[in-house]
What does this fold into?
Amino acid sequence: MSRPDVLEKLVSLCKRRGFIFQSSEIYGGTGSVWDYGPLGVELKKNVKDAWWHTMVRSRDDVEGLDAAILMHPRVWEASGHVSGFNDPLIDCKACKARFRADQMDGASCPRKPSKKPGEQGDCQLTEPRQFNLMFKTFMGPVEDTAAVVYLRPETAQGIFVNFLNVQQARRQKVPFGIAQIGKAFRNEITPGNFTFRTREFEQMEMQFFVDPAAAEGKRTDMEWFEYWKAQRMEWHLALGLERERLEFHQHSATELAHYAKAAFDIQFDFGGTLGFQEIEGVHHRSDFDLGRHQEFSSKRMEYVDQVANRRYIPYVVETSVGADRVTLALLCNAYAEESVEGESEGRVVLHLKPSLAPIKAGIFPLTKKDGQPEMANRIVEDLRPLYPVDYDDAGSIGKRYRRQDEVGTPFCVTIDPESTGNGTVTVRDRDTLAQDRIDATQLRAYLAAKLAG
Amino acid sequence: MSRPDVLEKLVSLCKRRGFIFQSSEIYGGTGSVWDYGPLGVELKKNVKDAWWHTMVRSRDDVEGLDAAILMHPRVWEASGHVSGFNDPLIDCKACKARFRADQMDGASCPRKPSKKPGEQGDCQLTEPRQFNLMFKTFMGPVEDTAAVVYLRPETAQGIFVNFLNVQQARRQKVPFGIAQIGKAFRNEITPGNFTFRTREFEQMEMQFFVDPAAAEGKRTDMEWFEYWKAQRMEWHLALGLERERLEFHQHSATELAHYAKAAFDIQFDFGGTLGFQEIEGVHHRSDFDLGRHQEFSSKRMEYVDQVANRRYIPYVVETSVGADRVTLALLCNAYAEESVEGESEGRVVLHLKPSLAPIKAGIFPLTKKDGQPEMANRIVEDLRPLYPVDYDDAGSIGKRYRRQDEVGTPFCVTIDPESTGNGTVTVRDRDTLAQDRIDATQLRAYLAAKLAG
It folds into this structure.
């Protein structure tokens, strides 16, 4: 039984409430590129900061990096992207549509959507030809081939070429890792499904360098691989993704890259026809990348183990997660339509983990008089230095609750006649709908406890 | 009297200690593109987070945004970049060098560096021709003109095209602003000075939308302009840049864009021959950008003031700061070579504001025995969830101090024989060199107080 498809509803909610807008919408949009609005940028920043904290700041064996998008073109020859990062492309000479040869089964003719391409001779399909997915541009004033550079299709290579720079500057010893968050670009032939597959996206990647011949009593490369598989699954669970919507998908022999020793994807069930799809990859890349860079750059990429008096090219265990995909997974996971007891109208609610929610609290004066707005504003001024809060005095309290529910705000604080009398406020919980009456001076501590973890 | 030139020393320190590496260094580098190493990424992240907190999270009248790098090509026709974002370029047919026509005075012939281009007929210079600074790429499978897109040369246009999306989704009322942090790209003919002028860089921009005919008792557009000038200067001072190294530079009539009502740069004195250079611009852009997008998209870009029953295109006050430039300014500002009383060797130190420093504390066991490493590790485990700390047990204490001074670590905690006896540690201050002996259980609170603000 498949979960309901909420993607279309999310596209609409995200635009209306300021999570995600179509890029350059006033010009008809840019193909499969999206802009994060005021709430989306906060949600995604919370996801990225959570990853950075878990993967870099809370560990002594992973170093951070922020390598540039534009790299030397030889990098992509060494990595194999110039020769091998292709999709097979089929054109239709009749209707000018383009298809991926390996996805013809699900395709339909754009001129006659009831028909498959090629059916009954409507389409005139070319033979498949290889189309490189890297965006190409030109550095320097003249468009000659010497100056061709690419927008990186993955952030990983920025880590590999800096392996020894980071290791030496930070005096790290293998095993250790390098992590970075950054944009990557792929000229996808058939992008789609909202922010799931886009031409511009953000990766959070970590490459962990291990000894291919780990000594007795040390973790082997395959043990590190299992370690990181488990760690990464735990991270998604800690963000609040439901356990039953997550699963490992092991790459079969035909899916596995020729240099890879093992590869698992972490898949999330997006619901509807999309179903289970990759949000992260955990890959054992062997010594392929560092070895190729040593070959192509003629620079040694070996690690020198001074204690054991050995030099070697480490194996790499990679964890690669899409920041946009995790953000979309969190929205799908959080979205619910619920009936509310005692009320005729239901509500749409995002059950986001409080620490990830873009707005932490809505602050409502019950009425616009009797000192309630003043007290509400004092509370706003007290909380805003700590995290984003929304002041709202428009419409009924019920309507204001719905507005905050729909964007995942975990707490709503109401200032009523009792508040201005005895200094207490009510705090309503988004998920349980329970209301606590507490002293306004305790609000900081109350919310801090609820938002922790 | 000009300040000493520390740029060359910083390039070396930044590579050696892991702040900034040349991009794709093993392949000979990519022209004027740089990678941030483990310490650089933390420093720059602290700068960006400080900006985001000041400009977005701590205000109710500025909304965040994260627009994509790839935008619809019409955006750059409307903005004027396709027709006007050019540098005049001169080629030399003899030695193939390229020069900016407006910078020939300072240029020298690359084949004969003692001579100026054109001198004594060595060079065969072409007439100046216009060279567009935007990086061009192709979206979709075929390189035809319909699919030409540009890497954005500024983040501002992502804000303008989303003006009404943000205003409506967040129910904002003019005056309000939209802020974003993101990469931009310019195919500079003569980049240089380390990370000061690069082809890939990160901007932190805010566009503040104001009523061109503000009612009695409200701030006028020029008053908002003065407000933001003052706010932005305060921000740089709050980061620790020295007041006497900062100044406003007013754009003269010839520097001013034709649509601009006023423009000031905030300049910082980088020292040496570079001297005072722009790190931020505060610009009154009038209604030019929104007006052009209305014209080119045929979509209304007006704000509807429902109270006053008016509709109008707002004026825009822009604040635009380079994240890389501020980071470089902070490094220049912090760098010092000092003699240390009672020691023959001097020290290199980065006097970074503690809240910006990449590492907050070095933790040193005096010796590798007697329970000191264990106690040091317990302290590391206690502090690491809060902020980055470095454990170091290699070499003399003096050598370890120097290592942390050089990367700006504000505090060094030493565990000595007394520590394992009575539970106290010494905390040494990077700037004053004063040492406090405190109880290890008080360390969290002690450092929190010192790191605040």
